[in-house]
Sequence to fold (237 residues):
Amino acid sequence: MAKLPSLDIFTAHRPADPPLVVLTAYDVPSARLAARGGVDALLVGDSLGQVLLGYDSTLPVTLDDMRHHARAVTRAGTGLPVIVDLPYGTFHVEPRETVRAALRLVQEAGVQAVKLEGGRARAAHIAALLAAEIPVMGHLGLTPQSLNRFGGYKVQGRGANAAEELLAEAVFLAEAGCFAMVLECIPAELAARITAEVDIPTVGIGAGPGCAGQVLVYHDLLGLLDDFKPRFVKRYA
Fold:
């Protein structure tokens, strides 16, 4: 029997270990190319709404969209752990509905974990997912599904009060049982501080070099789209 993908690369990671490398994937070719490039894990991001489906944000992405692409990524047979974003609306409801959505992604798409945005406001949802034995990755900072509340894509955690609040949210996610967390678009100094104070790996995107690892969007990494060029992205092709 083939060895099943494992989240050990995250749970066994220590500060002295090499940085974690995570890349988004949305189909068989992107998953296999990422694996050949030596990444540690694949994220089926709701960014597919923008880079594949032509939406202006991640908000229109549905559970069926995520399931469809996650199934393709797991069928690639890379042996890497596959994490999938819970799309907008799936964790803005009762926790039991969140679990139902996540169960579909685990059972029907074969992913190893789900990612959801937010901190203490998601306490009940995280607890319910973990009770259902579904591993959870957190996501703090610029959480794209909060676009309307933030008023755009803006750096988060600037200023002493905002930084302390973000740190408190990160501590909560670690204590709540998340196996890792994404830190997106926050000051590098704050990301390094969070990384030092929590006992789970932080995976940065636009958060400086002080995180335990980095994640990038496949299309950004390869420069496949010309209409969106994040300043923090180094394009390799």
